[in-house]
Amino acid sequence: MLYLKKTDPEIADLLEKERQRQIQGLELVASENLVSKAVLEAMGSIFTNKYAEGYPGKRYYGGCGFYDIAEDLARERMKKLFGAEHANVQPHSGTQANMAIYFATMECGKDRMMSMSLSQGGHLSHGSPVSFSGKMYQVTQYGVDLETEMLDYGVVEEMARKVRPRLIVCGASAYPREIDFKAFQEIAEGVDAKCMADIAHIAGLCATGVHNTSVGVVDFTTTTTHKTLRGPRGGAILCDSEYAQMVDKAVFPGMQGGPLMHTIAAKAVCLKEALQPSFREYNRQIVKNARRLAGTLADAGLRLVSGGTDNHLMLIDLTETQITGLEAEVALGKAGITVNKNTIPRETRSPFITSGLRIGTPAITTRGMKEPEMEQIGTLIARVLRDVHDETTIKQVKDEVIALASPFPIHPEGT
Ligand code: DSN
Q1: pTM above the 0.90 mark?
Q2: Pocket test for ligand 1, best of 120, 123, 130, 224 (most atoms within 8 A of CB)
Q3: What pLDDT is recorded for position 414?
Q4: Cβ proximity of 289 and 369 under 8 Å
Q5: How many CA atoms lie within 13 A of 155 on its CB side?
Q6: Which of 274, 290, 320 is the last residue of a domain?
């Protein structure tokens, strides 16, 4: 940060403070992770200097030779990792990857889509009324069964028969259970719809066989590259060759201009890392850690939505504790434990307050933490939640968090 410290000491200072926060704290936001230094170097590189509108071999600017090679490397690695016929690595984000599929498959203002509601685990860009997706298409949303708090595929099928959507979206950002992608594709085929799976949260799990994959099963798979895939902040799309042209056209020129080539280079780096055998072990450990953390929280008397987890995240239902999600998020934040408040299936509060907390293990697993640390973390969370206004306990927990986190570097050896 030599140059930054001279040019802009205010920003340099913020970056240093954030580095300390990441080192000393426990990052339990389920959608976040910690990237390697190699990924950081590619992201912070001179590849940011270039316009490369178009695709490898077909650019609208000169001087793109090295960029073509980098984008091809990213595409080929993405295809290899997921066993896909086609990959597009240009979407700036997961929401933009989703937007590209909507543009490719539906007519704005006319066509109908079906998706999981945000309040029950879906994503903003899956048709929420406040998002472009809810404004541009006619959206009908399914949720979870309120008894089991899990998806009921019979209900989804019945809804599809009534709604006759053009696109069925599956995938979630706050659903702790395995999703049956084959069931969704079959439901879509039964009503002559296309099926899109947004696997942003579980991409690493799908790529390594820890969760069943949507690739080669549903028509379109979208993802981000920065969650369990552990890469730079960005999006990507996977599909069969028959859809390659329509997807590529929907991304560029349909929805984006110049791709972020420094991010695409960093995507290539993270995908190379993900192709190493250790990435499978990492994803297995994410799930083992989530199970142990969920078990510890449950043993401490906290109720988990659906009773547990199959993946990298869990949702605590705080209803019986009288604490709101917001109060819990703030208290845990003061103790150095970063989580996010989240709505739960029978939510009665606003999305700014909520009755739930979402907790995930991808980032702490990257630091090398395993089951014994999960038990300690679960116990610390439960201690704070017993009385979110007890500043003495919060201070003690904060000291224990620093002691627990410090031996686990945010860039483990060799990364
Ligand atoms: N907002 C992200 C999450 O936290 O799940 C998904 O884009």
Answers
A1: yes
A2: 123
A3: 84
A4: yes
A5: 12
A6: 274
